[in-house]
Every structure is written in C-alpha cells, then in structure tokens.
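Preliminary data (for renewal application), pyridoxal-5'-phosphate complex.
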Amino acid sequence: MTSLEHGNGQMNEAAGDARAAELAHKLGLVRQRIESAAAAAGRTEQPRLIVVTKFHPAADVRRLAALGVEDVGENRDQEAASKSAELSGLDVRWHFIGQLQSNKAKSVAKYAASVQSVDRPQLVEALAKAVVREQDATGRSDLQCFIQVNLDDDAGAHRGGANPADVEVLAEKIEMAEGLVLSGLMAVAPLGADPHPAFERLAKISETLRAVHPAATGISAGMSQDLEAAVKFGATHLRIGSDILGSRPAVR
Ligand SMILES: *Cc1c(COP(=O)(O)O)cnc(C)c1O
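Predicted structure:
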C-alpha cells in the first residue's frame, strides 16, 4: 500500500482489508512481547496497552478497535479532537500523551479519559476548570492525571516533564482539584541511552509517591523500543505506536 492511500483515509475495501490484516499481525507481535516480558518479570498482571495512533488516520483507530484495542494515545490536540469527533460512537478511551498548552485544556476535556503529560501547576488548574465545566455540561467522568517526570539530567536534551523534586507538589495539587484523579506517573526514557536505569529510577519515584498517595499506582512507561525494560520495572501502562502502526513522518 502506498503512503498516500494510507494517509488520506479514502482506501478502497481491498486496501482496507490489507491494512486491517497488517495491524492485526503487528498488534499480535506486540501483545506477545508484552506477555513474554511480563512472564520474564514474574508479573501476573498484564500492563495496559495504549496504542499511539498519532499521524495515522481515524480509519486505523476503527480497525484497531475491531481488533480489541480499548485505549488509544494522541499527542496533538487538534488531531485528537478531530479523530475523536469523527469516531464519537466508537468504544475506545482517548489518552493525551503530548506536551499540552493550558489554552487547550478546554478541548482536551471534551474527549480525553486521561492526560499523561501533566507537568506544571498552571496546567492542573486549567484542566480542573475545564473538566468541571464539562462535567456540568455532559456529566463526563473525572479526568485521570499522570504526572510526567523528566528522567533526563541533560537539561538541553530533555523530553518534557516535571523534575522529580517537583512531583509531590503537583500530586498534592491534583489530589485537591475537583474533577481530577491522580493516577500516577508517566515518563519517556532519555534518547539514545539504556532505558533500564531510567525506568528503575521512575519505579523509585513511584514508590515515594505511593507512600503519600497510595491510590496513585499508575506507571506509564515503555514505547516500541523499550517496552521490555518498562515491563521489567513495573510499568502499568505501555504507549506503543510505530511497532503496531508503522513509521510516521519525523516532522510535521
Ligand atoms: C509517539 C509517542 C509514543 C509512541 O512511540 P513509539 O516509539 O512509536 O512506540 C509514546 N509516548 C509518547 C509520549 C509519544 O509521543
């Protein structure tokens, strides 16, 4: 299939079937990797798979849902808002995993089950306000919030997130906010480095957090390249994109 057919969502039925088969195959491989990693780590509870569908069309989300996927992740509000609106009847949960400007909180509150990239107090305030408003209008459930932690000590190269020292203040603020639930932590392993020490560190930060907030058990870690390391160090949520959907453009 050409990238054009794939990108424009106007596929004929035969091409659509081929894409569905491709997704089924790659999803199966990733599920096997997760099971093996969980078995190797002696874990009885499987982490939750969030399939990251950014850059890929709404039609792919529909195919994934037909394959049993219940959770999808997006990192840009404009794209997520339009896909979730197009698929409003579909039974999937939308997770927001990208850097988020406070002025987008209102939009995100309309479709997101979780925001996994909460990294500063102003964003907590904006999300709480937006969710309460949405709850008054539509009765939506509380928004699950993951605090994104920066695991990269090289400040110039860091991939977003709050400093570990600031996690407790943010956690407290989320706990106090109406409409928000503190779910746990999220992190991205530093680029080009062994992910094991980073995820081990994340596990320790999670332990510290849970000592004060026992219900905040979530650890969202692990992408296509490093899911095994994340499972080893207790990830409860994995965010997998390219190994299921294929490569996406590097920039847009
Ligand atoms: C894109 C993205 C992912 C998925 O990464 P893959 O390498 O494609 O599996 C996970 N987490 C975040 C925050 C992302 O932006």
